Amino acid sequence: MEETIPGTEAAQIPQQRGASLLETAVRYAEERHWDVFPGTWLEAADGVQRCSCADPGCAAPGAHPAREDWATQATGSATVARRMWQKQPTASILLPTGRTFDAIDVPETAGFLALARMERMELTLGPVTLTPDRRMRFFVLPGAAVKVPDLVRRLGWSPLSLDLTALGEGTYVAAPPTRYGTRGAVQWACRPTPANRWLPDVEELISPLAYACGRERQERPFTTP
């Protein structure tokens, strides 16, 4: 059974209710060959869900690394992943970028506009996540973080003028069904399937993504400082 985000046929989210974080993390390592590592988790305190990091002002409660050495902790072994989540079954599922994939981070509104354009252009997409803080991450081949600034300039934009960021080595993305506190869970806007096992190069997607971010920037309400 699947849930579909209204607005685009490309945005299909598998039903995540009931899926254990442990089994999902193992499946990402086993079936997609993605490195995974457990992050923080949510704890109930006085009826409120708080991040295990104990910071009351945590920006991503239950959805960020629990250790400074998270990059060395990440594993592509399903056996090791199972062992790590058995220690803390409610830990979030985090995926390091810059290894098997990079991710292009854009606002949700721009992401859905880009998805519609990509569908019309019949482009091959990789998986795409949608986060509760209204961001979308498009999975592409590693190396995108280095290429993106120059590619954006070639399209006539200043890299600093667009709300478009390439996540590469040294950072990570939260994977479904990780929850951001009370804001909801990360979902798939385009779910992983056998058809998108081979990821696109960022050069194939950058034009519709930059165009969508440019439109989103132009339509953003003007606010005075």
Which of globular, elongated, flat, extended, rod-shaped describes the shape? globular
**Uncertain ranges:** 1-17
Using the CA coordinates, give the radius of gyration. Answer: 17 Å
Strand content: 15-25%
* Structural class designation: alpha+beta
Number of E-type strands = 12
Distance between the termini: 47 Å
Number of helices: 6
User: Element order, helices and strands?
Assistant: EEHEEEHHEEHEEHEEEH
Strand order of the largest sheet: 10-7-9-8-12
Mean pLDDT: 89
The main β sheet shows up as: 5 strands, antiparallel
Helix % is 25-40%
Structural notes for this entry:
- By secondary structure, the protein is an alpha+beta fold.
- 30% of the residues lie in helices and 20% in strands.
- The strands form 4 sheets. A 5-stranded antiparallel sheet has the order 10-7-9-8-12. Strands 3-6-11 form a 3-stranded antiparallel sheet.
- Strand 1 and strand 2 (12-14) form a beta hairpin.
- Helix 4 packs across helix 6 (202-219) and helix 5 crosses helix 6.
- It is globular and about 50 Å long.
- Residues 1-17 have low confidence and may be disordered.
